[in-house]
Amino acid sequence: MLRLFVVFALWATPSLAEFQPISEREAFLKALDGRALNIGLFNLQINVMPDGVIEGSAVGWNITGKWDWKDGLFCREMDWSGYAIDYDCQLVEINGDEMRFTSDAGKGASADFRLR
Hints:
- The chain is of the alpha+beta class.
- 18% of the residues lie in helices and 51% in strands.
- The chain has three helices and nine strands.
- It has an eight-stranded antiparallel barrel with strand order 2-3-4-5-6-7-8-9.
- A hairpin with a 2-residue loop joins strand 4 and strand 5.
- The termini are far apart.
């Protein structure tokens, strides 16, 4: 049950800042600049590697996955210590050191990450 709450919360974090969309893979990687995506509340850290690998952890459990860029969207599938996080293509936006991912090609819930 805790895992389901955390997964929901990861995709439902609100923010009121002005975000600009990122529509190209190269711009996404340049914005990341080797930094990790973080949400401090969940002790969440995700590293998105240029080679399509995702690694990280949240509340002490490992996160692994793969990603690609398709039709202007960040598409990923992940596993959180045995809990499969389904494939989803997401709109990516940036505002300074914050990056927002919105599920369902920009029509679903969003999560804001701090770049560190």
